[in-house]
């Protein structure tokens, strides 16, 4: 049998050319999860910033290419919800997970305890383990959000770079240095950064993020605040699944990652149990594929 060359992408996935691009690389589980959830082609595309840039450039030239990124440190829930609405309506090709990352969807004691590999009566034990883990790292996670917020605030385009048309203002060394040192945008930026990075401003951001995590509770409490959706989940998920107090030995699960994948694949087989965001994504992309 000779290998066939020159085939087109429509011959893959039952004639569909729909492709979903996700964050990460071979050590990530995003591609694995979505390939087991969706009947479409899924490919890694690196970092979130790269995916967002490619998504923008592909809007008109690759209408059957879709992109999904982690929520990460984007606290603005309105932006996230708008992406889901626009994605469902076909107005955008870029979707933000409602939770921090794809692993966050599996930090659900009820969902995890329904695995055939889960030991009996582990739901409450898993819940306690997740809560204790979060309490240990809560202030680190809140500080991370503050660091990212102030970093992102200062990435905006705030000054125009001089072009050839401005040559006369930069005709010699003294003139060029004068333009730089007297630039009103730079002076304004210095004042703005001084204000935005003040102790008062950082305290305000920290308290705001802490309230978002904890909700109305004075400390982390199950069912209060958004901490479970916003905290990092990768390390914790692997630790939970590979804890023999919670899950049985899995044949073929020779390491943390392989055991995690086996259990995730088994969990995704029960469509009625999967998270609502997974169901919504599956519906939307199934509609795209059938067109």
Strand content: 5-15%
Q: Which overall shape is indicated by the principal axes computed on the Cα atoms?
A: globular
Oligomer kind: single chain
Structural class: mainly alpha
Give the neighbour order of strands across the main sheet. Answer: 2-1-3-4
Number of helices: 12
| Rounded average pLDDT | 88
Stretches with pLDDT under 50, minimum 5 residues: 1-14
Number of strands: 4
Distance between the first and last residues' Cα? 33 Å
**SSE ordering:** EHEHEHEHHHHHHHHH
Radius of gyration: 24 Å
Relative helix content: 40-55%
Main beta sheet strand tally, sense and closure:
4 strands, parallel
Task: Write up this protein.
The protein is 50% helix and 5% strand. With 291 residues, it is mainly alpha-helical. It has a 4-stranded parallel β-sheet, sandwiched between helices. The two termini are 33 Å apart.
In short:
By secondary structure, the chain is mainly alpha-helical.
Per-chain topology:
Layout: E1 19-22, H1 30-37, E2 41-44, H2 48-58, E3 65-69, H3 77-88, E4 94-96, H4 109-113, H5 123-153, H6 173-181, H7 184-196, H8 199-214, H9 227-230, H10 234-241, H11 256-268, H12 276-290
Parallel strand pairs: 1-2, 1-3, 3-4
Provide keyphrases for this structure.
291 residues; mainly alpha; 4-stranded parallel β-sheet; 12 helices
């Amino acid at each position: 049998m000779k290998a066939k060359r020159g085939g087109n992408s429509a011959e893959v996935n039952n004639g569909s050319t729909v492709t979903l691009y996700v964050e990460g690389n071979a050590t990530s589980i995003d591609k694995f999860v979505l390939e087991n959830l969706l009947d479409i082609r899924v490919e890694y595309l690196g970092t979130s910033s790269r995916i967002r840039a490619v998504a923008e450039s592909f809007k008109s030239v690759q209408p059957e290419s879709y992109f999904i990124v982690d929520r990460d440190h984007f606290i603005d829930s309105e932006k996230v919800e708008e992406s889901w609405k626009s994605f469902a309506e076909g107005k955008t090709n870029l979707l933000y997970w409602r939770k921090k990352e794809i692993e966050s969807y599996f930090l659900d004691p009820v969902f995890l305890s329904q695995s055939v590999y889960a030991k009996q009566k582990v739901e409450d034990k898993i819940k306690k383990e997740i809560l204790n883990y979060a309490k240990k790292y809560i202030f680190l996670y809140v500080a991370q959000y503050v660091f990212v917020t102030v970093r992102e605030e200062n990435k905006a385009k705030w000054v125009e770079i001089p072009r050839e048309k401005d040559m006369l203002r930069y005709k010699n060394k003294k003139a060029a240095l004068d333009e730089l040192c007297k630039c009103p945008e730079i002076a304004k930026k210095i004042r703005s950064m001084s204000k935005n990075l003040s102790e008062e401003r950082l305290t305000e951001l920290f308290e705001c993020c802490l309230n978002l995590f904890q909700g109305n509770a004075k400390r982390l409490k199950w069912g209060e605040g958004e901490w479970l959706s916003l905290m990092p989940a990768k390390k914790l998920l692997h630790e939970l699944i590979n804890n023999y107090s919670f899950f049985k030995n899995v044949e073929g699960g020779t390491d943390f990652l392989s055991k995690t994948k086996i259990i995730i694949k088994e969990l995704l087989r029960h469509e009625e149990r999967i998270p609502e965001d997974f169901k919504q994504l599956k519906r939307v992309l199934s509609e795209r594929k059938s067109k």
